[in-house]
Every structure is written in structure tokens, then in C-alpha cells.
Protein 1
Amino acid sequence: MLKGIAASEGIGIGKVVVIRQQDITFEQKTVANVHQEIDRLHAAVDQFMANTEKLAEEMEKSVNPKEAQIIRGHMAMLSDPFMVSQMDDMIKNDSICAEAAAQTVLDMFKAMFQGAEDELTQQRATDVEDIKTRLLKLLLGIKDADLKTLPAGTVLVVGDLTPSMTAELNRDNIAAIVTESGGMTSHSAILSRALEIPAVLSVLNATVTLKDSATVIVDGMSGTVINDPTVAQLEEYEKKQADYMAEKERLRAYIGKETLTADGIKKEVFCNIGNPKDGIKAKEKDGEGVGLFRTEFLFMDRESMPDEQEQYEAYKKVCDTLENKTVIIRTLDVGGDKEIPYMNLAKEENPFLGFRAVRYCLKNKEQYSLQLRALIRANADTTGNLWIMVPMIATVAEFKEVKALIEDLAAELEMPVPKVGTMVETPAAFIMADKLAKYCDFFSIGTNDLTQYIMVADRGNSQVAYLYNTYDPAVLRAIKQIIETGVNAGIPVGMCGEAAADPLLIPLLISFGMTEFSVSPTSVLKTRAEIARWSKAEADKVAQEVLALETADEAFACLESHVRG
Ligand code: PEP
Ligand code: MG
């Protein structure tokens, strides 16, 4: 079994076709007539433009206009007057051939993109490489491998899948794609997702290990490639593939739709994300916003704290990706089970009850201010839909202190104050929810922690896992009360704990009046579909029954019979 990056969902079973990189080496020549050589270069550039325009038009029909922009981007790059005039100058001044001039200039641009800080700009280097290869092939008269006529059931195995290659694929004939390079945000990943072709990228030596005509299974969910599968494996994956396709077909009806209950009450399905790149997933998976950006991931796996500018860029990137949708960003939630070595937090007897999240931040105000300033600036520089969320609030005083700090910083920056809300994840916040609501622009229920604190059962301790149960009537009653308190105070109430995606709990959350469900990007459509099953009246009936029960087991059984029965 080979491992790679799971870049596009789905399961593909088919026969390998390895596309080998064509040799585009050439001999650098000195030319006698530089004007003629410049004309030859311009003719190749014109041909490149015409071919690319055709490719983009085909893509508009077969994929969608947005993805065709990637290919049009190649035209824009090459029509930059600076790029071609530099090639012209090299030919004129050094009497070198068009191939050598094109290669030198494009390699220079490639190196420039590779040196960029952020991954998205780095990916542009692949685009330049793609342009270079295609332009050189035109100059050298090398014909491309014909990807349009690959046989049905092809598993395409290639070193790097360039955008132009992807654009040429006949989607119906390609069972899956395997490459040796590329990441989640590479154009080949974006395009394979847009074409809905299962893809596993960055599989080491794939073009050598996988042989032409061999049968392979490509699992775009787990990022695995099974070479020469056994009969049992084939049967297993054929079943998985059929299940995946059936579920996808069922959920297709909800793409791009509003989230509505069966009786037309408007809800929203947002996404939980851990880094700016996940923002792309949230958008692709049709999230209506981001309900929780866990910023602590920006602080992990590194030697020192990200500075204000780096944070600003990360927050702005998510807002830019989500365009004008709401993006709720949670301020740093360290401590508990989230350890960040360079912060040198002291070991504690009870980390979940200790110096965590907002408690740490308010004692390190200078550092907290960097994050808050980055958030205020990102909000001001985008569409103003960035909401700040504070974790682990236990007292009204804490929330007021954070809010005052945000107001002071915004005044200093002469920028608008973003919306500020709290996670409701401590029993104290739940009990004081009516008072907190006076100062909060929104609530978001963190059921992962709320469950552990209400049940006094550590969320990671298997010995007490039987108590850590969101179906426990104590937790369900707390959820009901929080939602109703927020709704009565006229503020939106969402949920960003795992429970928001639990189909069994959805009728209860509808009955209690919750408006926003924040789930992992892959659960968006499923959650939207589950919400659509329930009218308020039916949900109320379920809630009434469940709230009369005494134990978690009874609540679970009752919900199961209503939801799955
Ligand atoms: C929660 O507690 O429900 C939550 C969403 O936050 P985390 O899981 O990051 O503590
Ligand atoms: Mg939490």
C-alpha cells in the first residue's frame, strides 16, 4: 500500500496509465538573425495564448468558470509585458535562441515565487513551470501526450499534474489521479476536487512503482493507493465506492442551498477550522461561514509565537477566502490538553481546571493584545464580518475585561470594533448566561468542554468516559437553557462543539431555537440534510419526550428511535 496526501475525495478503481515527463532539453544556440528569433518567440507566445484560450473555454464547459480562471491566469502571466520583453532583450543583447531566453526568464520567475513566504504564492511556481514546459514544447515542436483519449477507467499516474494537463482530461474516463508531488492547495488538487476525481498526491516514486495496466485502488479519503489488490480488497472497496457514491448523490441536492428546516425556518451551517488553508475546504464544502477558527493551531509546532503581522495575514486570508461570509475566530485557547512548549506553562495538577485560555490571556495582556490587534485589523481590512470569540469564559467580569481591551485597541487603531461573543462551555457561563448576554454579540456553545465540566468527567479520561456523555439530561438541559437565554436576549446562538453535527441531537437543537451549527467541512451537507428533515413541531415533540427522561441511555434510545427508527 502506498501513502500520499488525500487531496480529492472518493474511491477510484481502475488501470494505471503512467504519463512520463517528456524530454524538453535543447541545445543552446547562438542565432544570427535576432529579429527573426524574436518573431519566432512571439509566434510561439501567440500560439500559447490561442491554445490556452481554447483550453479555458473547454474547461468552462466541463468544470466551471472559476476553475478556468487558473488557466486564464497563465495567459495573464505570459501577457505581462515585462516577462516577454525580458526574453526579447536577452535574444537581442546576447544573440541566444528563443528557447534559452524563455527558459532563463521563466526560471527566474519560478525562483521568485518559490521564495515567497506563503504556500499559495509558492504554488504559483508550479504555474510558471507549466507555462515554461508548454512554451518550450511549442518552440521545439514537441507534441503533448494526448490526455483526451485515455481509455475509460484510467488511473492517471504522473510526476506532477499541471493545470493544463488537468484541463485536458476527459473526466468521464479518469477513475483517479496519483501524483508524485503537489499538496492540498496545489492547482492540481483544486482542479481534481472541482472535477470530482479522487486524487492522492505526493506519493513517493509513484511513476516507478505503479506499472502501466496494473489494477489499483485509489482512496482519496485516506490518501492510500493499493497496488494489485486482492479479490477481497476489490470487493471491499467496490462496496465502499458504491456507498460513497450513493451518499454523495443523496447530498448533492443540498449543495448551494439555504439551510432550512422542513417548515422553512432559516438556519446556518458553518465550519470548524484549524488553519487558514481549511478556509478553502470550508468554502468548497459549502459552509455558510466559519463558526470556529481554533487559533491555537497557529501557535503549535513552532519555536516561538507568531507575531502580529503573521497572525493578521492568517486571519485576513480566511476572511478573504470566505468572501463576505461570517468568520468567527476564537482567541488563543491554550492549556488543558493543548500544550505549547515555548510558552513554558507550568505543569498543573488539574490542567482542565487551571490556567487556561482567557485566564492565561488576561494575565498576558501584552501578548493577547497582539492577537486582538491582528483580529481588529483583519476585520477592518476585509468585509467586516470577522467576529471575535472568547473561550472558557467563567465570569461576566472576564468577558467585560476582554471587551474593554478590544474597544481600547480598536480606538487606538482607529478601526471599528468587531462583534465579540463568548463560548459557553463552563457551568458558570451557562448559569450566568442572561447577564453575559447583555455584553455579548453572540453565544457559541462548546459542548466538548461543557459536557466535561457539567459531568465533572475529564474529556480524555477513559475511566470516566461513561460519564462524559452529551446525551446526559444534565447536559441537554444546560444546552436548552443556554439557547433559550440567548434567543430571549436577541443574540444569535450557535454551537461549535462536536454535538452540532450529531444527527441525533439536531431535532433538539432545532426545538430549542439554535440558529447556527458549526461542524467540520466534510459534515456540512449532511448536517444541512438532517436539519431539512425536521419541522419545528416535530422537533418539539421529540424534545418534550427526551427532556422528561432521567438518564443518558434513555435519552439516546429515545433519540435513536425518533431519528433512525
Ligand atoms: C468545545 O469545547 O466544545 C470546543 C469547540 O472547543 P475545544 O474542543 O477546542 O475545546
Ligand atoms: Mg472548548
Note: The chain has three domains: 25-140, 154-250, 255-563.
Protein 2
Amino acid sequence: MSRFPVALLLVCSVAAAEPLPDAAGLNKLAAQYAPVELRLDLAKLPANELAALTRLVQAAEVIDGIFLQQDWAGNEALLLRLSADKSPEGQARLRYFLVQKGPWDRQKDYQPFLANVPAHPPEANFYPSSSTKEEVEKWIATLSGPEKEGAMGFYSVIRKTSDGKFRYIPYNVEYQNELERAARLLEEAAGLTQQPSLKKFLSARAAAFRSNEYVESDVAWMELDASIEPTIGPYETYEDQWFGYKAAFEAVIALRDDAETAKLSRFAAELQGLEDALPIDPKQRNPKLGALAPIRVVNQLYATGDAGHAVKSVAYNLPNDERVTREHGSKRIMLKNLQEAKFKMILVPIARAALAAADQKNVDFDAFFTFVLMHELMHGLGPHDIQVGGQKITARQALKETASAIEEAKADVAGMWAMQRLVEKGTLPKAMEKTMYVTYLAGAFRTLRFGTSDAHGKGMAVQLNYLLDHGGVTVGKDGAFAVDAAKMKEGLTGLTHDLMTLEATGDHDGAKKLLETQGVVRPEVQKLLGRLKAVPVDIDPVPVTAQGLLQK
Ligand code: ZN
């Protein structure tokens, strides 16, 4: 573990250390995650589908073990030790370890909360712990062709051989035993289900676990349309904080919400019309949007691995592999029961603390849910493929390190802009005009509580400051925030224009300046965030129904 001389490491950790929390402190930390029981009605599932679902929940357990290994080599041994300690202190340590999936607090810049663990390794367990980022970078630079692709790819780890040379090891070798177990469970589920697209995905995914070739099964996942909606495999690369190359394993086992999925599909018909009306230079609009990516509204039964720690996603777009998305786009999954839980446990209490009395009662789940959907849809609208100095390039490439924050803020404000248009058109109910802005504002504070170090937080600070400057959001003498609907509408349109124009022109300097000057928490907002301390940071789903299946 010593990438630094030991003496230096000690000095660093002493300088940065807060005292480790005791049992009461750990319970307090855990209490920031409000327990919510996930109970789903399985009565409508035929016996064979229920049996398939049980196999998938079991496979998700296997995935959890792989994720622990990926994140830190010491995780599994530590978890065993913690599980064996039945004292109240031991149970408190275990509980918070399970929330964080590791001994570091993800909400506190990865500070350790347990004794005798090293500083959090930013390279996770994807790269040799005895090497530096520069050494790995240098080695990758010497490679070419398939070797380079393998080393930089999503589905391999980098290790050192006994002679000190680097090599990459594909996931199907590195996690061979676990992936074989997961593959068998998926195959059993494939044999049980009568739903063709589910059968196809599960068979293809099992094959991918063995071959390390994920493209075909990613495509099958895109086409999956069944009452059971599993997301299972290596996906996001956030855990690789050196290069963002390596995909962490996760599983989300869910059931499709048919009524909501049907309701949302009608928005699909609106997208080209929205693109054609975007508040940007008409030349920058896309005259022909690609085929609409599928959207699924689901209720989560069980989530593990990278999908099961600290702050939970309420919606996600996958896959990330460009070999798939170039041709097939990506699929959007919305976790409705998690959204309802977060709305109730977090957004409503935030609204109570933050908003003027008249606005509080208008905070509404339907507006919240529609906004999350619109955010997801708006990632597909606006400028993506652009030209800078005659060169074809993507907005993401041109905006470099600012791209994520700009794109997240764009998806938010354009989502609000789109909702407003759909209200005017009658596609959304007129009543939403009353609820959407205040709900959005309460949501802004929810995001800002996590700070401005990540793309969502920074992007949200830009939005809030813009709206404060343009009068869409006001602060009363008592510190309560209020909304001016007419100015809000103008402000959201103006900021949609500004952000999309930065993307259309690939204006990296402009984006950087905007984030530096506006991506900050102002004193009046900071004061409010101080008042939100008692509101849970997130939910801690208790998978009651899934546990019932595992015990059968
Ligand atoms: Zn987003």
C-alpha cells in the first residue's frame, strides 16, 4: 500500500486526521441515511418468473463481492472481521461499512472512519498499489493496438508480474470464480423465464461474464423489455480515480412499472419539437434527432455493488461503452420507488426548512418525478457533435474537465424549460406550473448539500446563482427562499441558451470561467445549508422483499 514513503504517509494522515468516530458517532453517521423498506408486490409474477427473479437476486449478491474486491483489496477480510464482532460498537462499525461499502466516508472526501486502514487509494484496486499513476501512464504510452485497448479498456485490471513488468488482466480471469457463479445463476434464470428479451439478455450476459466481451449483451440489455428489469455487470468508471478507465460491478434488480412507462412514452413524441424550439442559434439545433433511446420506469427490489453505496441514484443511463452507444444510444432507467422515498424523507423536509410558507405546500412528487425524467431526456437534446476550427469534435471533448458540470446543469435547466413548454402545450397539466419551480428549487438545495466538488453540485450552484441574479429566486429577510415564476421562466431560458452555446462552440475558456465564478455556494445559501443538518443526506434502502426471496 505504500505509494508514498511511510514517514510521509504518517505525517499526512496526522495532519489531516479527525478523531475516528466512536459507536455513537458511527450511529449518527449512519442515521444520515434514513432507512426505507423496499416492499414490492410480487403477486402478479407467475411462479417461473418469480423463480427467475430469485436467481437474479442471488447473482446480485455475488456482484457485491466483486465490487468490494475492486474497490480495495482489504475490503473482504475487513468485512469478515466486522461481521464477527457482535458487540454494539462492532455492529455500529459494520453498519456504516455496509452503507459506504468500505472503510472510507464517501461524503467526507473518503476520510477513514475505522482504525487501521490506509488512506483511500484513488486508483482503487484496479492498478498495482506499489505503482504510481505516472508509471502506469508511461507504460500504457508504450503500447499499441489491441494491447493498448486491453490496458485502457473498461474490463481489465493492471497488475505487476513478479519481474516487475506491468500487464493487464481481463475481468473474466481476475474474477473468474465469482463471474462463473454469477453466470450460472443468470443461465438458470434464463432457463426459467418465458420472456424472450429477458432470456436473451441473461444468456448473453452470462456469456459475457465468461468471455469478457460485453457488447452483444449490452445491446441485448438495450432491447430488454420485460416485467423483470435487471442491470447487472461492470458499468460506471467513477471508482477509478486515476484514469476513469475501469468499470465497477453493480447490480440493480427491478420490476417494470407498466403504467408509468406507458405514461412517459408519450413524451417521446415531443422531443423533436422541443429540439426545434431550443433557445439557441437555429443553426445549432439538430434537425433530425436519432431514434429515441428506450426509457423504463421501474421499482427497485435490490441493488448491490457500485449501485448500493452511500448516495443512491434515482435514474441512470447505460451502457457507457461507446461501441454500443454510437449505434444504439443508451437506455434510461428511472427508479420510481427510490424517488418516492427520497422525496418523502429528504425533499419535503428540505422544503420546510428552505422555502417561504406559501411555496412549501406546492412541493409535489409528480413535478419531481417529471423533472428527473426531463433531465434524462435533455441529455439527448442540444449540441453534441460540433466543429471547432474546422475540426469535427464532440462538445464533451472540447469542454474537457468542465464538460460534466456544464452538461449536468444544461440537462437541469433545459429540463425545466421543456416542462414549461409542455405545460403551455397542454401535454403536462396546467397545475404543474405552480409546483414545478418550487420543487426544482427544493431539489437544488438537496444537490448543493453534497458540495460543489462533483459535477452535479457545481452545475447546480451555477443554476442557483444565475437565478438569484436574475430574480427567479429571491431570499427573504428571514432567510427563506421564494420563487418568482415569470422571472424563473426567463432565467431558465436564458441559462439554457448560455450553456448550450458553450457546448455548441466548444468554448472551454468560457465554461471554465463560468464554473469558477458561479459554481460556488454563496453566503445566503451556506446559511440555509447549515439549517438542513438534521435532514437525512440520503436513504438507506432495506430490501425487505428481496431478503424474503433469498431466505426461500
Ligand atoms: Zn444527468
Note: The chain has three domains: 1-31+73-120, 38-67+122-256+294-336, 262-289+355-521.
